[in-house]
Known about the structure:
The chain is mainly alpha-helical and 106 residues long. Helix content is 43%, strand content 0%. It has four helices and no strands.
Amino acid sequence: MRRLHAAGKLTPPAAALMQPLPREMLFDTKVDPDEIKNLVGSKDLRHRLALQRMRAALDTWTSETGDRGQWLEPPDVAAPFEKEMHDWFGTPAWYKPAARKTKAAQ
Length: 106
């Protein structure tokens, strides 16, 4: 995929997968089963209300379960996994390990 992307041979949806993911994504899987159109910025009240409900559900889950997924692991913990992924798949040009920040550092 990286070679096809570099050659400009991917369709727009496939090319979008080669970019860093947005912080949030919302899809209408009945209308868009392939999850192509991210509705996070939609002006449609139904989409805005759905996003609001999902954010509240995530906040509740995080609080009730003590989920720590909102914080990045320290660089020394993440480094072995990043190396393994690099060894297996290579590292995308856009990825900058030095740019990693923990929640506390932001």
